[in-house]
Design goal:
CATH class of the largest domain: Alpha Beta
Distance between the termini: 24 Å
Strand content: 25-35%
Largest sheet: 6 strands, antiparallel
Shape: globular
Radius of gyration: 25 Å
Order of helices and strands: HHEEHEEEEEHEHEEEHEEHEH
Number of helices: 8
CATH topology of the largest domain: Alpha-Beta Plaits
Oligomer: single chain
Number of domains: 3
Strand order of the largest sheet: 9-10-12-13-11-14
Number of strands: 14
Length: 345
């Protein structure tokens, strides 16, 4: 059942940007003079919380300006939307300040204290494996200090390292599984790891991101799934709506070869009508039906394509079968839980 509601963060950033012109010069001066104290931290935090409760922030050296003001959603899709809308309202960067909706890569890797342990991030080493289908790099990390600290500190240090090396968005977009080596190992230096990520990011995605598999239905039946396993939430931050369209053809069996060919041609027509209104994430075929799973910013914009396709479709899939029926459902899915339910991730 579709449910629509007004987000109370429809205008994130308005109050922050009203406050910022009177605060920016004092904050920049405090950074330079070393007068950056808890009073300033609390004032910034108060106004960042008005962008969205739970939003994190960080000040960094800028890429082009002297300083960068970065919000951080810390992986939460709703906060990420608020951060992006905050950024849309930001003033033009200047020599003093630039603005980002996520934590940026560090200019240089530093030594960090993690739970009382000192980690020189330049000493981290990585072994990697590129998953061409998911378009993610699986990494295994090792640091000389790992042997001296408990597992939770190792994990924290590993994530801090990746955030500093690649930035918050870079980690979410390109890093897959993260494991830790228990003993000393060679591997890529941080610079080599970053270069590998950038090389893969520059490669065009091929058809091998669409993967065939099997999925078990709630009733225990096995279906055939074709899914884009490289489809990433971070690349579609405002596609909150999961919509499925199911065609039922009136015979409790898989389509014949001829019927499958017809279904594929009809699917091409459907996707052409849909255009950029929605992104196809997967399709599932079970005896008697095929379901297309989409993500979209706005379900209402999908309706004309669905209605037009329904009118265009021949009544039956093949002679002797009853009239086909279309079912439509879905709802808001901020975390794309449907992908987990389908076994895509």
């Amino acid at each position: 059942m579709f449910r629509f509601g007004r987000n109370r963060f429809d205008d994130p950033g308005a109050e922050f940007w009203n406050w910022w012109p009177g605060a920016r010069d004092g904050i920049a001066k405090a950074i330079v003079t070393g007068a950056f104290d808890n009073r300033i931290v609390n004032d910034i935090s108060k106004h960042v919380q008005r962008v969205h409760p739970g939003m994190a922030w960080e000040l960094q050296p800028g890429t082009h300006a002297a300083h960068a003001f970065c919000l951080s959603s810390e992986g939460d899709p709703e906060r990420r939307q608020a951060a992006l809308r905050w950024l849309e309202r930001a003033p033009q960067p200047d020599a003093t300040w630039e603005y980002h909706a996520s934590k940026q890569p560090a200019k240089t890797l530093m030594t960090l204290m993690v739970a009382g342990a000192r980690f020189d991030l330049e000493e981290m080493r990585a072994s990697t494996s590129w998953d061409a289908a998911r378009r993610r790099l699986d990494v295994r990390l090792w640091h000389p200090r790992f042997a001296e600290v408990p597992q939770d500190v190792r994990i924290q240090a590993a994530f801090l390292f990746l955030d500093h090396l690649l930035g918050e968005d870079g980690v979410e977009r390109w890093i897959g599984a993260i494991e830790l080596f228990e003993g000393p190992t060679g591997g890529r230096t941080p610079a080599e790891l970053k270069a590998e990520v950038e090389r893969h990011a520059a490669e065009p995605a091929g058809d091998d991101t669409w993967v065939n598999g099997e999925v078990t239905q709630p009733d225990g039946a096995t279906g055939l799934i074709l899914a884009d396993v490289a489809l990433k939430r971070i690349d579609y931050p405002f596609h909150d709506w999961w919509v499925w369209v199911r065609m039922v053809w009136g015979a409790e069996r898989f389509p014949t070869d001829a019927e499958a060919e017809q279904l594929n041609a009809e699917e091409d027509n459907f996707l052409e009508r849909m255009g950029e209104r929605a992104i196809l994430a997967a399709r599932v075929t079970v005896p008697g039906s095929r379901t297309w799973h989409f993500v979209s910013e706005d379900f209402e914009k999908m309706r004309p394509a669905i209605d037009g396709w329904a009118e265009w479709l021949p009544d039956s899939l093949s002679p002797g079968l009853p009239q086909r029926r279309l079912k439509i459902d879905g709802g808001q899915d901020m975390t794309w839980q449907f992908q987990r339910d389908l076994g895509i991730r």
